[in-house]
Amino acid sequence: MDWRDQRVTVMGLGHFGGGVAAARWLARQGARVTVTDLADEQVLADSLAELAGEPIAACHLGGHREEDFRAPDCVVVNPAVRPGNPFVEIARKAGARITTEIEMFIWACPARIVGVTGSNGKSTTAAMTAAILRAAAEGNGVGAPLCKAGHRPKVGRGPLRPMSPDPFSQARVWLGGNLGGSLLERLDEMSPGDWTVLELSSSQLWYMDRETPMPHVAVVTNCTPNHLDWHGRFEDYVAAKQRVLAGQTPEDFAVLNTLDPEVRSWGGACGTTAFGGAKVARPPSAVEESAQPGAAVPHAARLVPLWPEGKIPELRVPGEHNRVNAACAAAAAFAAGCDEEAIRAGLAGFTALPQRLELVAVVGGRRFCNDSSATTPESTVAALRSVQGRVWLLAGGRDKGLDFRPLGEAIVRWACGAAFYGSARDALRSEVAAHAPGFRTTSAQTMADALAWCWEQSRPGDAILLSPACSSQDQFQNFRRRGEHFVALVRQLAQVDKTADCPPQ
């Protein structure tokens, strides 16, 4: 699209860079950009600093104005904006195109795209996929791609077979999307031979137009209830996740984690045995429409079996859930053309992403683990099962309307005790008490008080795990700020412990 002289309203600067990047990129393309946000200048100080000197036509903060939505050609919506927002509806009725930063990137991106979504594990799976592709590019450790433009994959019962050579020797690998940070301003550096791995959230997918080209390789790690405060119904959340697969063609590939019951139900009949004895769905002949409006269960693409458990190397990241993430990433990389050597090398060298079961310090003999990115009960259950030894859990934040019952059972089984904080603290504590009335817990207003209790209750050799199971936005701007606060509190403890092993600031 030629953006010159287009009137564009960027709705929501946000804190992860997407709104800033969209405003800056559009302004540099010649668009007349108006920025609007509910937050004020003080809250958005960091984001505004990044726009200093850019040719932004107008910036309206502290609330939205109807006039900014009645006349634009396009509105770029921050994914935090919920469906049915009245200002978005004003723009839609006025004929404006509604899009997002990630959708603009997908339309403009010259590289081949791997898209990864899911309720849990999508960041790690996306990063693992990129690590494998980079290992292939650096070592040219590739087989032939399973499919190349202009060819249809052969359908048969045997294993997937390469069709034509396509070396990675000149390829660069880009990682972005919901992980944070925009790739819009790197478009000029990309070429058709490159690969881009995008983590895609349900809200990003929800806003995508039917005509938007979907990734060449799409991955769904799992699908459990999440963000119901945003979507309203689980059915709508599922429909958003399925959007990553709708519109794929026989030249594209889909990796579905069929260990997950919901995702397994998308695929129809069972086929090849794969990871952990799970079954991989064999696609019907055509796309079938879901009962949910706007959702399509994708069967046009060829489904790639999960990578077999026996071929996954020992990982540096703990937990069975990460081995499943690795199986999804390996399958996606195999579809892209990587051989087994590159897959093993990429996975073996992969280290944990920040704030995902990240060991941040050892203080007083206690290991402090930052898993602030765990915003669902399922993520926290996986973390509890992954951390070795006696574990003291810090959890809490804003309740997103999710079911805490399985988490309460897991806490009793896998932890020594738990400290709950924030607005969800009483609900979490009640759930644990329902499973084990005498289990050691406390309820605190702040993370600092909860951490102090864990410190007092724990002993050398124990682990203190921040894995909140909730949104951060009752007390923090986002999960990153929450994790940074946890690390700062741990550093305060380290100041009085001469034996502390704490990385420098």
Tags for this entry?
single chain, 505 residues, alpha/beta, Rossmann fold, UDP-N-acetylmuramoyl-L-alanine:D-glutamate ligase, Protein-Tyrosine Phosphatase, Chain A, 3 domains, 6-stranded parallel beta sheet, 17 helices, 18% strand, globular
How would you characterize the overall build of this protein?
This protein has 505 residues and is of the alpha/beta class. It has 3 domains: 7-99, 3-Layer(aba) Sandwich (Rossmann fold), CATH 3.40.50.720; 104-348, UDP-N-acetylmuramoyl-L-alanine:D-glutamate ligase; 358-494, Protein-Tyrosine Phosphatase, Chain A, CATH 3.90.190. Helices cover 32% and strands 18% of the residues. It is built from 17 helices and 21 strands. It has helices at 18-28, 45-50, 67-70, 86-93, 101-108, 122-139, 202-206, 228-231, 234-242, 261-264, 320-336, 340-348, 377-386, 405-414, 425-435, 447-457, 479-494, and strands at 7-11, 32-37, 58-61, 74-77, 97-99, 112-117, 173-177, 195-199, 217-220, 253-256, 270-273, 279-281, 288-289, 296-297, 302-303, 358-363, 366-370, 391-396, 417-421, 441-444, 463-466. The strands form 5 sheets. It has a 6-stranded parallel β-sheet with strand order 7-8-6-9-10-15, with helices on one face. The chain has a 6-stranded mixed β-sheet with strand order 16-17-21-18-19-20, with helices on both faces. A hairpin with a 5-residue loop joins strand 11 (270-273) and strand 12 (279-281). The longest helix has 18 residues, at 122-139. The two termini are 44 Å apart. The model is unreliable at 141-165 and 268-298 (pLDDT under 50).
